[in-house]
User: What shape does this take?
Amino acid sequence: MGGLVYLLGFSPVFDVRAVEVTGASPETLPAVQQAAAVPADTSLLWLSTDDVDARVAAIPRVASVDVRRSLPGTVTVAVTEREPVLAVPLPTGAGLLDGTGFVYRTLPAPPAGVPRLVLPPGVAASPTDPATVAAVRVLQALPTALRAQVTELRADSAYDVSFTLGGRTVRWGADAEDERKAAVLGPLLTRPGSVYDVSTPDLPVVS
Assistant: This one.
């Protein structure tokens, strides 16, 4: 019995020998490896995966992480990174927002294909800002083909959202009835005009 206790609790047989990271980009991998590092002589049986999870999850670019143990001595860290959906102007460049409205990275300029987000003066983009959340929700409500055409999205409030498609402006209004508005907008865009107002989807207007 004593031998079994020693084998399970103190023997180096179950020491962590490898930490394997999957899903991380080359840019993020070093930070994940550092956060997931396990001290030498740590037994896999006593390793707290919650602690490793918390350290990796604190990396801004990480959206989610799954830490698992595999006998006899491997820790697997599966990472899902955040994807940019909008870019907000910052004094140091452009802040990338993920699908929650969280600014997780700053670049000198936004990547190609990521729309610019314009918020009221003094308002910082965040998952707790109603205008930010509304902007993200409106963008995600659009069909993929239409979403790819959006160049700028303006959210003066959660009730006043608009965006540009090339040289055309779409007035969305409130972050409400998004599915209905998206369905109305597609056919509406076939009509000539410069401003397409679907804020009241039952009475859309082209001007």
Remarks:
- The mean pLDDT is 92.
